[in-house]
Amino acid sequence: MLRWRALLSAVCIIIAAIGSADAFGLFAFKPSDGEVWSPGFRVFVSRTGTREDIVLQVGFAGSASEFALVVPVPAKPNIGYADAGIFDELYRIVHPKIIPGAEMPPNTASIPKPIRLENMAVIQPSQPEALVVWLQSKGCKVQPEAQRLIQDYANKGFYFVVAIATVVPKSEARWLSPVIVSFDSESAILPVRLLALNGRPVPSQVFVSTSVRVAADGLVEYGSAGSPTRSPYRLNEFPLFFQFVRMNTMVTELRGILDPGAITTDVYFKPNKQKPVSGG
Asked: Tens digits of per-residue pLDDT, 138-174?
């Protein structure tokens, strides 16, 4: 089973099992084909001007052999695959040394290789019905509340990143491969309203790199640190981080449990003027 630290994350991702009776609370499926749920998400949000790069990874568990992933974003995105090692780098940046009595850093040596997402594509906001048709073509029954939220995002100009995972069902929790979603946005945003359709709380971990420390409603700061851009010799220590960050920033780690019943809006990051907390 994946360890808690390795599973923490937060992002508005929907996991929908194809042919599942209870697929993470979003869709209803045939009861004979299993189910899927997420024991946690993790995400890195990097802001440079109005450009936002999101690296996201989701853990999954259950008996479904195929399921869909849907991520809404506020502008036309570029999409691709990422290296999960960036989350280890971020942890070392925010928590540069072990403090006596503090939690140990995550042990990822025994975690199985992530399952690669396939058929990644982008659906335009002018075609929300295309998203519904795409989901239905994968065996998903899109409930009225899901259609309402999809239409609401589309009315606001959101695009939808979609992908498919095909797996051999196992008892333990596993990772999907991380993906990169890049877009322009006036505000630093993490779209999470679709999680209101999910049936259970989701542990969340968010790393945010921007010009200042940040806060967000529903998430608690777990640590922060200046980015190591002032130390050129550290370029080799954090190569994945420096693919996104090329200027001095603050890196803030936020954590929380996302309660589907309490989600009424997306997460927006704002400057945090409170005294920094000690990472651990």
From this structure: 777 677 888 888 899 999 999 999 888 888 888 888 8
Nearest 5°: CA angle at 116, between 158 and 64? 85
Q: Are 7 and 203 in contact (CB under 8 A)?
A: yes
184: which residues sit within 8 A by CB, 6+ positions away? 50, 51, 52, 75
Mean pLDDT within 14-41? 49
Range list of β-strands (E), the chain? 14-17, 27-28, 36-37, 41-48, 51-62, 66-73, 78-81, 118-123, 141-142, 159-166, 170-175, 179-184, 189-190, 202-210, 214-215, 220-226, 250-258, 267-268, 270-271
For residue range 258-278, what is the model confidence (pLDDT) as tens digits?
887 787 888 889 998 877 765
What is the set of domains in the chain, with CATH numbers?
4-271 (2.60.250)
pLDDT at 109: 46
C-alpha 246/C-alpha 54 separation (Å) is 16
pLDDT digits (tens, 9 = 90+) for 77-88: 999 999 999 999
Select the more confidently predicted residue: 233 or 62. 62
Residues forming beta bridges with residue 69, ordered by sequence position: 15, 163
Distances, alpha carbon 154 to alpha carbons 124, 192, 205, 247, 265, in Å? 8, 15, 27, 34, 15
Distance CA 66, CA 167 (A): 6
**How many of the other CB atoms lie within 10 Å of CB of 53?**
20
Alpha helix ranges (H) inside 31-183? 85-94, 128-137, 144-155
Q: Which residue has the higher pLDDT, 34 or 29?
A: 34
Q: Beta 78-81 vs 36-37: how paired, if at all?
A: unpaired
